[in-house]
Design goal:
The protein is of the alpha/beta class and 451 residues long. It contains 16 helices and 14 strands. Strand 4, helix 6 and strand 5 form a beta-alpha-beta unit. The radius of gyration is 23 Å and the shape is globular. It binds pyridoxal-5'-phosphate (PLP).
Length: 451
C-alpha cells in the first residue's frame, strides 16, 4: 500500500489503488492550492496546457471522480492534525467534500491556470462564488464600491440583500468615470471595488489596470467578474486581486450546468475554507465532484470555442451594422472602448462573443427576436450566454429587470436593448442570410426603415 493511501483513503475504496504521479515532474510539489506555473504565463490556452495534469487512480488519461463525501484515515492522530490544519489537501489529506474535494480541486487548479491566479476554488453557481467572496472580504456594516452596470442578480445582492442581512452597503458608480470611483472609495471603510470586465448587458469594457491602481492606492481588494470574457481578458494579469466567474456560461459552454468559481490568492481561498470563519466551509456553496469532472472535460476546448464565438460575433455585428441597425460591440471601431479592449485583450482571442442591438422599443425588440427564432431560426429567445446556439434576450425586461427604470437608465440599458450571445452552430453564410431575411420581413411589416 502506498504511503498516500495509508494516510488517507476514501471509505468507498476497498482495494487500495496505485496513485499516479502528475505529469511535468511536479510530483513532489505541495501545490494543491498554488498555481506556481503562473510565473510562465503568457497566454491563457498555453497556461491551461501547462497546468498540472491529473491522471485517474488507475492511470486513465482523465482525472478520477472522487465521489466520496467523507475520507478515512489510517491513524486516529491524523484526524486531529487535519482539523488543526497541519495536514491538508496540499499533501493529499482530505476531510469531507464540503471542505476540499480532490476532483473539484483538480478543476479549480485548471481554472486558476486559465485566470493566472495563485489559486481558485469552484462553487455551485456564479452567485455562490460572488456572495461567498464578498461575505469573506466584508464584515458586518462594511462598504463596497461597485459598477452601476452589473448582472441583475449581483445588483440585487448588493443593493437589497446585503444591506438587509448584514448592513453591508454599496455605492454604485459609473466605472468609466475614474474620478467618481476614487471619490466613492472611503479609506478604512470600503473593503472591495467590484466590477465586470465586460459589463452585462451594455458591453462596456472596464479599464482594469486603472481601476486596480485606484483601488490599491486606497487599500481595497479589487474583485472582477470575468464571466463575459474568459480567455479574451485576464483581469488578474491586469492587476485584479480576485476574479469570479459564472462557470454556467462560456466555461461550461453546454447550457446544462450551473457553476461558479473564485480565483485569487491562496491565502484568500484557504481563508474561505477555514473551519471556523470560512464562507465556503460555513455557507456550503459546494460544487458536486461529478459536475467538476464534466467541466474539466470542457475547459481544454474553451480557447477554441471562444475564438469561434468571437469570429462569429464580429461577422454578424459588422453585417447588422451595415444593414443599418444600432449595434453595440467592442469589436467595432465605433465602440467607445474598442481601443481599450484591443490594448487589454489577449492576442488572437478577439473582442468577445456578445453584442447588443438597440431596437429602441421593447415592442420592436420582441418582434425582431420572435422572427429570429420562429421565422429564420437564427437563435433562441433565452437568457444566459456562452452556448453553441445564439441566445437572445431583451435585457431590460429579463436579466436586468432587478433594476428600476431610473437605475436602468443610469446603467445605460435602453428598453429595446437585445443582448445576443453569439453561437457557432451552422455556417457563417447561413446565419448571415437568416439575419438578412429577418430584417426584410421586419421592413415588410413596416417595423423597420428600408436599408
Ligand atoms: C456577469 C454574470 N455574473 C454572474 C452571474 C450569476 O451566475 P450563475 O447564474 O451561475 O449563478 C451571471 C448570470 O447570468 C452573469 O451574467
Amino acid at each position: 500500500m502506498k504511503e498516500s493511501v495509508m494516510n488517507h483513503g476514501d471509505v468507498n475504496a476497498i482495494i487500495p489503488t496505485k496513485k499516479r504521479s502528475p505529469m511535468n515532474g511536479q510530483e513532489d510539489e505541495p501545490t494543491v492550492m498554488k498555481n506556481k506555473k503562473q510565473m510562465k504565463w503568457n497566454d491563457p490556452m498555453a497556461s491551461l496546457a501547462d497546468a498540472r495534469h491529473e491522471f485517474s487512480e488507475h492511470g486513465g488519461v482523465n482525472m478520477s471522480i472522487e465521489a466520496s463525501a467523507t475520507f478515512t484515515v489510517m491513524e486516529p492522530e491524523t484526524m486531529r492534525r487535519m482539523f488543526t490544519g497541519e495536514l491538508g489537501p496540499e499533501r493529499d489529506f482530505f476531510i469531507y467534500s464540503r471542505h476540499f474535494n480532490p476532483t473539484v480541486l483538480g478543476l479549480s487548479r485548471q481554472i486558476a491556470a486559465l485566470e493566472a491566479t495563485e489559486a481558485a476554488y469552484c462553487t455551485s453557481s456564479g452567485m455562490a462564488a460572488i456572495s461567498s467572496v464578498i461575505l469573506q472580504l466584508c464584515n458586518s456594516g462594511g462598504h463596497l464600491v461597485a459598477s452601476r452596470t452589473l448582472y441583475g442578480g449581483t445588483y440585487a445582492l448588493f443593493a437589497h440583500f446585503l444591506p438587509r442581512i448584514s448592513g453591508i452597503t454599496t455605492s454604485f458608480v459609473d466605472v468609466k468615470d475614474l474620478r467618481a470611483v476614487e471619490e466613492a472609495i472611503v479609506e478604512g471603510k470600503t473593503s472591495v471595488l467590484y466590477f465586470e470586465s465586460v459589463s452585462n448587458p451594455t458591453l462596456t469594457v472596464a479599464d482594469v489596470p486603472e481601476l486596480c491602481r485606484i483601488g490599491h492606492a486606497k487599500g481595497v481588494t479589487v474583485v472582477v467578474d470575468n464571466t463575459f470574457a474568459p480567455m479574451v481578458l485576464s483581469p488578474a494579469k491586469l492587476g485584479a486581486d480576485v476574479v469570479v466567474h459564472s462557470v454556467s456560461k462560456y466555461i461550461s459552454g453546454g447550457a446544462d450546468i450551473i457553476a461558479g468559481a473564485v480565483c485569487g490568492p491562496a491565502r484568500l481561498l484557504n481563508s474561505m475554507m477555514d473551519l471556523h470563519q470560512g464562507s465556503f466551509m460555513l455557507l456550503g456553496p459546494t460544487m458536486n465532484p461529478k459536475v467538476a469532472f464534466e467541466l474539466s472535460q470542457r475547459l481544454p476546448h474553451l480557447g477554441i470555442r471562444m475564438k469561434e464565438h468571437c469570429n462569429r460575433a464580429f461577422a454578424y455585428a459588422m453585417r447588422l451594422k451595415k444593414l443599418g441597425l444600432q449595434v453595440i460591440y467592442p469589436g467595432l471601431e465605433d465602440h467607445p472602448d474598442h481601443a481599450l479592449m484591443k490594448s487589454l485583450g489577449n492576442k488572437e482571442y478577439g473582442f468577445g462573443g456578445m453584442f447588443c442591438v438597440d431596437m429602441e422599443t421593447e415592442e420592436k425588440a420582441n418582434h425582431f427576436m420572435n422572427l429570429l427564432q420562429n421565422y429564420t431560426q437564427f437563435g433562441l429567445m433565452a437568457v444566459s450566454l456562452g452556448f453553441h446556439e445564439t441566445l437572445m434576450s431583451c435585457s431590460g425586461s429579463s436579466t436586468s429587470s432587478e433594476l428600476n427604470d431610473k437605475e436602468k437608465a443610469l446603467a445605460g440599458i435602453s428598453p429595446g436593448l437585445i443582448r445576443m450571445s453569439i453561437g457557432f452552430s451552422g455556417t457563417t453564410e447561413q446565419r448571415l442570410n437568416q439575419l438578412e431575411m429577418t430584417l426584410s420581413r421586419m421592413q415588410e411589416g413596416g417595423l423597420l426603415n428600408k436599408y
